[in-house]
Amino acid sequence: MKNIKDYDLEQLKQELTNIGEKPFRAEQIFKWLYVEKVHSFDEMTNLSLELREKLKQNYDMCNYSIVRKLESKDGTKKYLFGLSDGNAIESVLMQYHFGKTVCVSSQIGCKMGCKFCASTGIAFVRSLTSGEIVEQIIAIEQDIGEKISNVVFMGIGEPFDNYDNVMNAIKILNNQKGLNIGARHISISTSGIVPKIYQFADENVQCTLSISLHSANNETRSSMMPVNNAYNIQELIKACKYYISKTNKRISFEYALAKDNNDNQKAADELVELLHGMLCHVNLIPINKIENGKYIKSSNENIIKFRDYLNSKGITATIRRELGSDIDAACGQLRRKNLK
Ligand code: SAH
């Protein structure tokens, strides 16, 4: 059965028209789903009994159960949600001074094979539907009784390998009659699927784009990220420049620093040369160790040196705060789980 939360408002209006109902009912349903956050059609008391029955017959409502919740010393929370098909996904809630951010998963498992990321370790199962993406935010808002201000697509999966569902989820998140999270408060991170960067540039959405770069050297980047064999750094940067020219928006490049791998002076110089003159920002991430992973975190001293060097060359760089590493909720530490 179709999940009612897979539709954005316009699509829901169409669905209702198809079953002989007035389109304004869609707005009422939207409010029940995303503002009141009800768990059943029976709770939608301003709809007739007949319509509620019709909805029950035609649609499912994807409610998550919280299988486990871990809380870090720094206040970060990691949720394990059980899906109706026996799979499970993880989402992370982070507290910043500007509000609460949820890091959502877009797939069950990941195909990209990045050597430093735990999400890759186990086989890819499937992409999440739009409703399953959105439900992560609904369930967390409900659990904490507060509004989420920001969403980052940086959990398990490659968002641009699930492009249509991710874009549709953004429409649902964005809708003022729904979860009302401004596009500027939503970030998508991609490992660098070049054709989708072009498509995204043409989409004219206001979300922030982050690119997992990690090295400005093709040999090093290919050894860390197999996607570089399909789309190398030059093709990637060309697509990024197209995105910037189309949107006039700054790109954020993620760069996880691993000792003796991509953290030396040569690597910094190559990065400066690559990004010189671009409307961008570099987000340095102290690499998190994963089980059986070969990469080791750069020293704090070296990370600061790397940042200062980039800044001195006119490339704005900041160091990402490490949140939730004590509960394996930090970047690259989320894994696919199976409840069966
Ligand atoms: N698939 C997407 C989004 C998921 S990961 C992407 O690749 O961009 C979010 C960020 O965490 C990415 O920049 C990713 O490269 C980074 N990351 C993954 N594993 C990491 C690790 N072990 N330490 C630090 N950052 C990591």
Which helices and strands occur, and which strands form pairs?
Elements: E1 2-3, H1 9-18, H2 24-36, H3 49-58, E2 59-60, E3 65-71, E4 77-82, E5 87-96, E6 99-103, E7 107-108, E8 126-127, H4 130-144, E9 150-153, H5 163-174, E10 186-190, H6 194-203, E11 208-212, H7 218-224, H8 227-230, H9 233-247, E12 251-257, H10 265-275, E13 280-286, H11 300-312, E14 317-319, E15 337-338
Parallel strand pairs: 1-2, 6-9, 9-10, 10-11, 11-12, 12-13, 13-14
Antiparallel strand pairs: 3-4, 4-5, 5-6, 5-15, 7-8
Bound molecules: S-adenosyl-L-homocysteine (SAH).
Description of the structure:
By secondary structure, the protein is an alpha/beta fold. It is built from 11 helices and 15 strands. Helix 1 packs across helix 2 (24-36) and helix 4 (130-144) packs across helix 5. The two termini are 21 Å apart. 45% of the residues are buried.
Summarize the structure.
35% of the residues lie in helices and 20% in strands.
Protein traits:
340 residues; alpha/beta; eleven-stranded mixed β-sheet; two-stranded parallel sheet; 11 helices; 15 strands; 20% strand; binds S-adenosyl-L-homocysteine
